[in-house]
Please model this.
Amino acid sequence: MSMNDDVEITPGMKHYIEHSDKYLARRDKYIQNVVKKWKFDTIAVHGLYEVTEAIEDYQGSIIEPIFMSTSQAYRDSDEMAAALAYKIPTWAYSRIANPSTYYYEWTLALLEGYGFNGETSCCSTSSGMAAIMTAVQPFLVMKKDVYEPRNFVATSQCYGGTYQQFSIRLMQERNIECRWIKDATDIDEWTKNIDQNTRFLYGELPSNPQLGFFDIKAVADLAHAHNLPLIVDSTIATPALLRPISHGADIVVHSATKTLTSSGFGICGAVIARKNLITNIDNEQLKADFSLHIKYLQNRDFGPNLHPLQAVMTLNDMRTLRSKIDLMSRSTMKVAEYLKKHPQVESVQYLGLKDHPLHDLASRYMWLVDAEHDEQYGKPTNRYGHLMSFCVKGGADKARLFFDGLQRIWRATDLGRIKSIATIPAISTHQQQGEEGRSLAGIPPNMVRLCVGAEHPDDIIADLDQALYAVK
Ligand SMILES: *Cc1c(COP(=O)(O)O)cnc(C)c1O
Model:
């Protein structure tokens, strides 16, 4: 993990480095021989937090302690010097690292890397937007004193905040061109937009709220053929349904705020990357361990770090991710089928519906993890998540009338909750980008985004039914 090779190593520092190397070797063995052999649910519940460690270091606390302290004290100057030179895995100062965020990071790295034949690591961030910024920033560097035109290629169907970050902060304010892909399933369109100034490819899938999807493997192969990384926003799927890195993607970003923290307790993000990633950026450290690189260098200096309290809250929610996603996906399917038959509904968009144009493509990628090891299923089983949208007949006014009539479903610009939530993207999440941006992203004014929670689906259907009755 050596990040600073200019530091002179004193004999005293050497003692600490040898000690920590032994610890790292032990940890690596434990990961390879024990944790990597567990099923998804076991990793989600325990991560790297061990019984012996809890008893020896944390008074037996069965839940990962929340380390609210800003900083760590050292035994002596040698340990301090070794730590601050990143020669030993200590945490120093909470903006750089923290034991609570450490457990969160490892759990996510292992879940995103589940079934992947290689290593992954994670850098926690204060939000999903911070994760996206953190992930794209290292690819936008320029050589000293020379202006270089830079561009990247991204799916136009994406979260409203991502559209803002790319089109305003990067394009307008920094002159970094974002080339929007209109049809992400069209590999030719991706290919045509790549040139010698391209730095990375970026895709969100399934996209929020339009449920855009693309062939991850084909786009990853294209990226790699041009010596570029593919970055994927996998917020909606979560690792319980889709793990893009195992299909060739290099970096995954999450708004852990959403389904990963289904309780709704706070804002949270993460970047997960494969080790040894492919990029035309000339930086060996960045290639070797991207997450660690951004965590210890870039984010140390920018400061979009995650709060330890939030890390443990999200970690706690993630333990039951697989079963929650399964339940909510099944309920969403029921609700989608109900809405499809409703005379007041113009169209329903849900990847689980057979007539959705992207159903077949999504079915190749979206599987409930470990369904084949589950008593209930016993075989690979498709699940499509709990995000859907539909258009209310009669235009924007009717959509608002329906929306205002909801009684059980919450009206909020939120998703991924244990509680069902609906929003009208044109007046909320996608309001800032104007008519043109919305039309590019495929967001009509009468579209309602619905995220089905863990209530009994009959009660959600009853609420939708009474609200739709009112617009007849
Ligand atoms: C919400 C969201 C984000 C932004 O995440 P925050 O945690 O709100 O900063 C990014 N991508 C997707 C797909 C989202 O839904």
Summary: Residues 11-318 form a domain with the Aspartate Aminotransferase; domain 2 fold (CATH 3.40.640.10). The mean pLDDT is 95. The radius of gyration is 23 Å. The pocket of pyridoxal-5'-phosphate is lined by residues 127-129, 159, 161-162, 204, 208, 233, 235-236, 255, 257-258, 267, 269 (CB under 6 Å).
